[in-house]
Design goal:
The complex is a heterodimer of chains A (229) and B (264). With 229 residues, chain A is α/β, with parallel strands linked by helices. Chain A contains seven helices and nine strands, in the order E-E-E-H-E-E-H-H-H-E-H-E-H-E-E-H. The mean pLDDT of chain B is 86. Classes of the chains: A alpha/beta (229), B mainly alpha (264).
């Protein structure tokens, strides 16, 4: 269960002037087992919201309450240390998450899933970006989280890997839920049940993702002709 | 799937420390060829060079109550313990910025871990130097081992406290890093690590005694050499005050600025 309670968030510019609120008085409550798709235009705070839920950033006011295991954003590659091998990096993440007795299991899973062969024992800085995201994706799935966070990252790598990732993801979604930020409707409709539409710092909750997408598109539909004119 | 249960804050912190420690050790030892060798050889070589220079100059050998080389070894390693656990941890937050994506990792964790690792390394260095000293027939073993151990830990706490405070300051005002670097050399000279402060006039000693590291170095020597006459005015209480104040201030700053450091 995740609860977002009157959350405010803004970013500060270099000269300490405060920008406008990115998120303003956000309130919602995500029941266990419900997957949520977040929609909205660019710059309305979708990724910010995901960062707040994932605990990578703190709200200026209000709080985010997590009563379950929440993942880091799926496919995150920033946490890798370039001079260390894929295996060492996987070990590190497994240790942080306290799975000391399952380390070997996690390593085997990631090695098997990522399919990067001998490169698994080479330093990460020698990897291509595709190899990196394979490793990162496998790593996300190696742990059993209650809620996965995904920021436009579900589709990485070549076609065969995409299919594999999609399948692994679908299996997981049965057991766990996901909070997803994406612009591709198909994935949102496939994986999510509820929808959250972010607009000018406000959030509107829809029990059905289709309604959220419809409302979002309607709002764009109103804007588009004006721009064209 | 919450059957695995939610870990207690302490369990989370402990696994983060464990993971970071293993990572730091690997990065430092495997980073380049012979990394592990230089980690130990560098301070040993430095002390050897200092001893060599002092031997050649052949003057100011009049440290009362202690042999000269052991006196030097204790002073230099004590100062290095402080300096390394202080300056190496300064950049720990910046170096591990990417890790804050995993919310379990707090900005204070890499600072604590690096400082601890440096303390472990410097303790090993001191032990090696002591073994070499004993083999060469010098009187380098502490007369009061427990007291020496206690002071050794206190010096580390002072370095850790400084690291906690300055790791925040450096992150908020990056220019201060140069100032810290600049201050380290005069501090090294004025801590009595290589040059006996006893030979300086009393009117200067009074001001030098504001430096907590001078107290630390002299007190540690007193634990090593029971016949040693330290400069007057050295006080364990003063050192404690500095360590505890810096630790408290550092922890408070980390508490206050945690979210801003994570977001940067």
């Amino acid at each position: 269960m995740i609860e977002v309670r009157s959350v405010y968030k803004r970013y500060h510019t270099r000269n300490h002037q405060s920008a406008d609120w990115v998120l303003r008085d956000l309130n919602f409550h995500l029941p266990p087992g419900v997957s949520l798709g977040v929609v909205g235009g660019n710059g309305v705070g979708k990724s910010t919201l995901l960062r707040l839920i994932g605990g990578m950033d703190h709200p200026d006011r209000g709080e985010v309450i997590r009563r379950c295991r929440v993942s880091w954003p799926i496919g995150l590659t920033g946490g890798f240390q370039g001079s260390m091998t894929g295996r060492q990096n996987v070990k590190f993440i497994a240790r942080i998450h306290g799975d000391t007795d399952r380390i070997q299991q996690v390593i085997d899973f990631v090695q098997d899933f990522a399919e990067i062969g001998k490169a698994f024992d080479e330093p990460i800085k020698t990897y291509s970006s595709g190899m990196r995201s394979r490793l990162a994706f496998g790593l996300s799935l190696a742990f059993e989280f209650d809620v996965y966070l995904s920021d436009e990252a579900t589709a990485t790598g070549d076609a065969s890997f995409k299919a594999k990732a999609k399948q692994a993801f679908d299996e997981r979604v049965g057991k766990a839920s996901i909070i997803m930020v994406s612009h591709s409707e198909g994935i949102l409709r496939d994986l999510c049940r509820a929808g959250l539409w972010l607009r000018k710092g406000e959030a509107i909750w829809f029990d059905d993702i289709a309604d959220a997408l419809a409302a979002y598109h309607e709002s764009i539909g109103q804007v588009k002709p004006r721009k064209a004119a | 799937m919450s059957s695995t249960g939610i870990r207690s804050p302490w369990q989370v912190t402990w696994s983060v420390w464990h993971a970071l420690f293993m990572r730091e050790v690997l990065a430092r030892t495997m980073g380049n060829r012979l990394g592990w060798f230089w980690m130990l050889a560098e301070p040993v070589a430095f002390i050897a060079i200092m001893v060599g220079i002092r031997e050649m100059m052949g003057r100011i050998r009049l440290v009362t109550g202690a042999e000269f080389i052991p006196w030097l070894i204790v002073g230099i390693t004590a100062f290095f313990l402080f300096r390394e656990s202080f300056t190496r941890s300064l950049t720990a937050i910046e170096a591990n910025q990417a890790l804050f994506a995993y919310r379990q990792v707090k900005p204070i964790d890499p600072v604590l871990v690096r400082s601890t690792m440096e303390a472990v390394l410097k303790s090993v260095v001191l032990l090696i130097l002591m073994i070499i000293g004993v083999l060469l027939g010098m009187d380098v073993l502490p007369d009061d081992p427990l007291g020496a151990l206690f002071l050794w830990c206190l010096i580390w706490l002072l370095g850790l406290g400084g690291a906690l405070v300055m790791s925040i300051v450096v992150r908020l005002v990056p220019d201060t890093q140069h100032v810290v670097g600049m201050l380290m050399l005069p501090m090294f000279m004025l801590s009595g690590a290589v040059f006996p402060i006893q030979t300086m006039p009393h009117s200067i000693q009074v001001y030098l005694l504001y430096n907590p590291m001078l107290h630390a170095v002299e007190l540690l020597r007193l634990e090593f050499f029971s016949g040693y006459t330290a400069i007057s005015g050295v006080s364990l209480g003063y050192l404690w005050h500095w360590s505890l104040t810096m630790l408290a201030l550092g922890l408070a700053l980390h508490r206050r600025f945690e979210s801003r450091l994570k977001a940067q």
